[in-house]
Design brief:
By secondary structure, this protein is of the alpha+beta class. It is built from three helices and four strands. The mean pLDDT is about 85.
Length: about 130
Amino acid sequence: MTEGGARFSFPSSQKLTKRTEYLACYNRGQRYFTTYFILFILPRPYDGLGPRLGTAVSKKVGKAVRRNRIKRLIKECFRRNREAIPLDVDLVVVPKKRIPTKTLTYQQVEDDLVPRLCKISREHPATS
């Protein structure tokens, strides 16, 4: 808990948890590219949950420590900037093979993902 009783959490209602949800994003979703990531976005009918996040980090990116660090950075970026993505979508973030795992910072992840997600939100106002 933080000062004032506010909690910073990432509840399971905001996560993609099933293989079928990931496969739906890959097969039916739209693909977007950033410097470090590939985004798969699949609009959902309005259900009031907002965007849901899934991460898929291949072993080609590095060993478990580096893969888990990338996942933590992505989740933290999503959690902090969730209001900037007002869409009801399922979002899978896949790091590219050549991502600089040793030197990647939270600020680089945020600078890479947030502008692209905001642009996608503006392009698809009907699903907001």
